[in-house]
Batch of 4 targets.
Target 1
Amino acid sequence: MTTVTSPLSGAAVGLSAVPDPVFSGSMVGPGTAVDPVREPTVAVSPVDGIIVSLHPHAFVVVDTDGRGVLTHLGIDTVQLNGEGFELLAAKGDSVERGQSIVSWNPVAVVDAGKSPISPVIALEASPDALAAVVEEGPVETSTTLFKWK
């Protein structure tokens, strides 16, 4: 079983409330989301593993069981072309849970007219593969968001 922790501090938000049909419809996979604190912050790795995909607005870490966890920083933030995001790691890096990956400012995302809500997705998982999914309440970067059976 893989424990996936929050990459951000803020408030948990169920996927159905994410303002993007791809995420709210679980088309990418099941999971949850975090509405981050409104201050400059750092997104951290939600699992131990290897960064297999890294963009200013999103990253995927694959754990030792081959399970990929996507963290998408905000909605439609790809349209910001990396502005306001700083990569703190590189594709191919081995990372530990809690290790810094991307520095960003959710306030700048809001100011640009985008949602800062950040989905955390279990890629290629079936909906019944997740347990103890947190969909509301405050979370810190160490808070468990879900368990992947």
Target 2
Amino acid sequence: MTATLSTQSRLKIYKSSPELYDAMMALSTAAAKDVDPKLGELIKIRASQINRCAFCLDMHTRDARKIGVSEQKLDVVAAWSEAGDLFDETERAALALTEAITVLGPHGVPDDVYEDAAAAFSDRELGQVIALAVTINAWNRINAAVHTAPPRR
């Protein structure tokens, strides 16, 4: 049996379950607290690329532009590890950790990825970066399940 994929919208989950939306927004706000907004958007964009969430990619690339993330970074964030020194040490550590959380291997997040992130961030910041990656993955999966499409502009 072959799975078929439709781009047709499904359940309007945030209308049928507004408490879900409220809880996710509260989690998003808590996760973003004390994280540089530009770094937060890069985390959200990278996870959304991996998860193929067009709605979140549209939203977070627009948000990133509004707060001054460079077009060059947005152009190459999917290949950040090949971009030389375009991304600084903290961005690289956060993006590697985001990828490891988003695509969990059989043993979870590799020690070297975690250790690099732990060296780049304080304990509080590391917790926030982990929470941001987890939260955007939850948003991506909700939107993928119900086929939330980006708005036409």
Target 3
Amino acid sequence: MIRAKRQSSFLPKEVHPLKRTRSLSLAALVLLTLFAAGQALASDVVDALGSPLALDGPARKVLCSGSGALRLLTYLQAQDLIAAVEDIEKRSEARDARPYFLANPAFRDLPLFGEFRGRARAELILGLPEAPQVIFKTDPEAGTPAAELQEATGIPVIPLDYGNLLDRREALYASLRTMGRVVDRQERAEAVIAFFETTLDDLKRRSASLAEEDRPGCYVGGVGFRGAHGLSATELGYPPFVFTGARAVTEEEAPSDRASHAEISREKLLAWDPQYLFIDLSTLNAGERAGALYELKNTPLWKDLRALKEGHVYGLLPYNWYTQNFGSILADAYFVGKTLFPQGYGDVDPAAKADEIYLFLVGKALFSEMNDLFGGLAFRPLSLTQD
């Protein structure tokens, strides 16, 4: 039995260009010419109240509210524009799988403007030492709703759809482009989009010619979703499987090309008996006597699983950490591809590829640092001797 959970998505209103209602005077035309570059950045961006955004040039200070908003700004190499941060950026955790934060630990020293998941506080924003010109907000109705936040602060709030790299890729790209126009990082936005497209094409190409019988059954367990989970927690439409053409055993019952968290029964996993088992290392946060690794080591029920007997159990970097970390998704995909289809990945060192991905997206090679946080268990076979 599979019980699936889907995250809600925000679908933005259609964006309309600014409509002109009266003739422009000569003076207005002169002013328009002077500010044309700045206005072009934002004239097709609509705020939370439905009004076209008007700035006299690129935004110089911004806030990012909601899951993943600051990550996208970091991808655009515009993190220096941040005026303040949510409380999640100020926490000290033993394990943190957010590459954008690991590459920018100075976020912790910035002023606070609210709580994570979009719970921005108007009184903190109005008291900031540097006033933001724009607030970017993902999942606009979560936490403090975008329109309510804009009315309380008088600062334009730009709703964004975080999207994903599967069925909502265009939403992600639209958000990157919107951010890019507002902060004058259009070229960088296009470079990030091209990077995603080139990388996904490369992953697809490497195993495209393999016959179905050459694709062993695999399963990913311990997948994080608003916290740590055990072996039964998986993801239908798991992106690293989709991108590499891997055959997920869950597809036998619930085919999916859209990621959604799911809980599966022990009986199903035993019946599927996957040849390869991947573990999302966020499961380590479940506690010393809990989580997927503890279960595999200490539950007799699992000892006859084919993957365990043949030593085909591997660790993956967590990627669903304050929503999806796209760099980690791609890094995990290269390791999955290398493990399942070595003939197509002979030139790939997954750890080096992860560093290449992180370096491009967040400006720092982070595989070793992240791997150390998770016990050095990523991208390697896991030892499952009993605790």
Target 4
Amino acid sequence: MTHEKQIEDSKLPASHEYGGSDQEREIAVHTAPLASTPKGRWERSFPVLACGAGLFSDGYLNGVIGSVTTMLRIIYGKEYTSSSYKSAVPSIAFAGTVVGHLFFGVLSPAGSVGAAESTGELKKGHRNRWFILATDFQIDLGFVVSAFVPMLVVLATGENHLRAAWRICLALGALPPLSLLWLRLTSLQNQATGTEANFSAYSFGIFASSWLVFILPTDSPLWKSFGMATAINSFWLPGALLGAFLADWIGPKWCLVGGVSLQGIVGFAMTGAYSELNQPSRVAGFIILTGIFMALGEVGPGDNIGLFASKLSSTPIRGQFYGVAAAWGKVGAFVGTYVFPLLIDAAGDDTVKQGQYPFWVSSSLCIFSAVVAFFGLPNVGQDMIEQEDERFKRYLEQHGYDTSMLGTKKFREETGSVL
């Protein structure tokens, strides 16, 4: 399909049909709906996919810390578990992530921001699902791979060489960002421009391999623990996929409220039945129920918190807005990694309570989150990005700013704005 035909189909007049100067024509094209831009399907979709590649790396690097922590605990024993090192490793990882969110949130639009703006050029009614598939689904896929890779590495090195194994697992995390470099260099800027985590999702994923050590027989090889963690993390994928479609069908707000409410209910049920689940012979049931719990977390907050954070602000501040929101999400995850070990320690030698306490706290927070989302979040439509930009433009005009040059190359060069 030619560009002229695409413009005709989208009811956007060709450049020669605009009156006035080249600058006036540029303004008219810039203020047209994003879905009307003369691009093919691949040109519209490629920036979304490129952003998703970076978030896959985010998921892997955050998830693999859990397996590394498990290996360090086995290597150093009480020297590691009885010291501050136990929480220092995941804490350092999350501290770096938070700083990165804040730094790049101010410096430029992050991965999720770029994906959100790119989906504005896609077909209405499908935008939320593609945003989620390029963001939360990619993060979840990174978490699944972050448990699968340590299983393969430990099988290859053997449990007598865990010092090499944990270093290999971390080193492999450099490959996705390097592959992303090519994608980002070849990705075009979209019309609008000129990365999401909650307490239970990250914390449960990070400690999945550690918890399974409690349930599996003491003589089970470590690779089985990582394999079980892979199975549990895999439940995130169908949850993220279902939530992606529900976000378009019923809206992000109701998808979030419904998903996190059901997650809390399942979590309370697991808390009550944990004494029955905490048996090596019933590890399959534990995996299924924990998987459902985590999948519902993806249907609700996992899929939708990034969508809210990246679509509820205008283009000039979207990167900063999302960066702050994502940093707070990582703070919640950091609190989870710090609190969960304390909850387990508070249970003493009672293995049942060691499993019940984290589920009880997380389930309570799920219900609390559902209430906050119900009363505090707005409904997000398919055109929210364009609506927020229009509101910002009206705000500027009401306060005496001249917006006639907004969107032109000259305006961007003089002001450094992305609008």
